[in-house]
Amino acid sequence: LQQFSDTGSRKEHVKITSEPKPGFLERLSETSGGMLMGLVTFLLAFYLLFTNEGRALRTAKSLDEGLSLVIPLDSIHSISQQNEGRLVHLSGDLSTSKPLFDPSYGLSIQAVKLKRNVEMYQWVEYEDSKEYEENGEIKKETKYSYNTEWKSEVVNSRNFDREIGHKNPSAMAVESFTAVSPNVQVGSFVLSKGLVDKIDDFKQLSLSNLEDPHADVTRSGDYFYHSENPRRPEVGDLRVSFFYAGLSGDDPHLGSADKVTVVARQRGDQLVPYHTKSGDILEILHAGDLSVEEVFQKEHQSNTMRTWALRAAGWLSMFVGISLMTRIFYTLVDWFPVVRDLVNIGLKAFAFCVATSLSLLTVSVGWLFYRPLWALLMAALSLVPIVVARSRVPPKKQQ
User: Fold this and answer.
1) DSSP per position, 269-321
2) Exposed/middle/buried for 168, CB within 10 Å: 0-12, 13-18, 19+?
3) Helix 292-325 crosses helix 337-368 at what angle (to 10 degrees)?
4) Which of 94-103, 338-347, 358-367 has the lowest mean pLDDT?
5) What's the CA angle centered on 206, arms 205 and 212, to 5 degrees?
6) Is 351 helix (H, G, I), strand (E, B) or coil?
7) Contact 89, 72 (CB under 8 A)
8) What gap in Å lies between CA 393 and CA 399, rounded to an integer?
9) β pairing state of 203-204 and 238-247
10) Computed over its alpha carbons, how large is the radius of gyration of the chain?
């Protein structure tokens, strides 16, 4: 059953759908499917937590190994054969052999990367839903609203609840792209593709010094508009902006070339990945003029942040997995309001304690090979949530 209610404006409407309240067997069937998904999520959490610890410790050992071996170069303009195959550290200005062009808009810049970003003025659909129970049925009230916005991707209006009056074009007449300089150097050294990929600090390019490239294109601010009236765009109109990364020459409007610091292996006049004995690859690039110690400190900080982010993701996966697997106990009592709420709280507390204990235990196993003492300490800590949980159980239930 669908019920439509219009607000008088075609940019907004409400749809109400209703379906019979699911029976006990149907709810049980849905819970069984959730249990299977929970088991997969639960097992995935173990894999994520265990491999993350191995990766984190391997990366830390590789960074320490690199710091003990790295050789700071005295000059970036002369290549010493003594450093062939060794890990080197150098800082200097970026340079490229040729400017990057976009002939369609009469634009060129001496940079490592030039990005053309195309946006189209399109309809966008928003949903706001709420569910409620009425006359033994589950009803869902969904409010659909439509707004026109600039979007970098084509919004498929065929998926809208109501496409009439909100139809978007199926493609853009102008495409986005990123041009990358084929030869990027610091002094006499050529950067590898991996190092060039790390130059991704894009800044918007000012178009104030450029003329309109075509009669049907108008420049306004830092955009080129394919529109009859940029101030009042219509659906299907385009606007184009440009971004650059790694300024590689002195520019009267943008300033001097960007300076970078690189740690990599010297191979002839090229800077390429360095394979450590610990098993990781060192191919480091940072903006600015940094000392050896500052570079490796930044890398250690990055490794620590990534490690904790993946630990949090692993714990959350485990918590969600346990919650889904134990959901059947909630389903069995969900027609008793008070009991249902108590069981729900108990299941959440159980999932929290078990996920915390198992996460700590998995992390400690991951550390076992590298740092046995820390692993044993963490294994002991993993028992704390379970001990705390048991201490809160009433004495009668312990007997």
Assistant:
1) TEEE-EE-TTS-EE-EEEES---HHHHHHHHHHHHHHHHHHHHHHHHHHHHHH
2) buried
3) 140
4) 338-347
5) 110
6) helix
7) yes
8) 11
9) antiparallel
10) 30
Query: Which two three-digit tokens encode residue 18?
Result: 């209703």
Contact 63, 300 (CB under 8 A): yes
Separation between Cα atoms, residue 292 and residue 263, nearest integer Å: 8
Residue type, 125: E
63 φ/ψ angles, rounded to the nearest 5 degrees: -65, -40
Amino acid identity of 194? Answer: G
Query: What type of residue sits at position 306?
Result: R
Cross-strand bridge partners of residue 186? 94, 189
DSSP state at residue 22: P
CA distance 112 to 98: 10
Length of the chain measured in residues = 399
Segment 259-309, tens digit of pLDDT: 999 999 999 999 999 999 988 999 999 999 999 999 999 999 999 999 999
Residue 283 to residue 230: CA distance in whole angstroms:
45
* pTM for this predicted structure: 0.78
What span, in angstroms and rounded, lies between the C-alpha atoms of 164 and 177? 32
Give the C-alpha separation, 396 to 150, whole Å. 65
pLDDT digits (tens, 9 = 90+) for 198-244: 999 999 999 887 776 777 888 888 999 999 999 999 999 999 999 99
Q: Where do the domains of the chain lie?
A: 22-60+303-392, 80-268
Count of alpha carbons within 13 angstroms of residue 18, beta-carbon side: 12
- The answer to whether 116 and 197 are in contact (CB under 8 A) is no
Residues 60-89: what's their mean pLDDT?
94
Give the tokens for residue 237: 């109109």
